[in-house]
Design brief:
With 80 residues, the chain is mostly helical. It contains three helices and no strands. It is rod-shaped and about 80 Å long.
C-alpha cells in the first residue's frame, strides 16, 4: 500500500524541526561551557576542581597557565 505524498510533507517538517532543536540545544550547551562538551555526573572532586579553576582563572571550564606565570614573575620581582 503506497504512502500518500501528503504525509511526507509533515514528516519532513517534524524531522527538520527535531534536528534544528537538537543542534541549537547542543550549540547553546557548548557556548555555556566555553566550547567544551558539558560535564556529566560531577562528583565532589570535580566540583572542587571546577571551583579551584574558577578562582584561579575566572572560568570553571578552562585552565590557564597565565595566572601561574604571573605569580612566578611577581614572586621573582619581589625577591630581586
Amino acid at each position: 500500500m503506497p504512502v500518500p505524498f501528503e504525509a511526507l510533507i509533515p514528516l519532513g517538517i517534524i524531522v527538520a524541526m527535531t534536528g534544528v532543536t537538537g543542534t541549537l540545544l547542543n550549540y547553546t550547551k557548548r557556548i555555556r561551557h566555553e566550547g567544551k562538551p558539558p560535564r556529566i555526573s560531577l562528583d565532589t572532586w570535580d566540583t572542587q576542581m571546577m571551583e579551584r579553576d574558577r578562582r584561579l582563572t575566572g572560568s570553571a571550564h578552562r585552565q590557564s597557565v597565565a595566572c601561574f606565570l604571573w605569580n612566578i614573575l611577581s614572586f621573582y620581582q619581589l625577591n630581586n
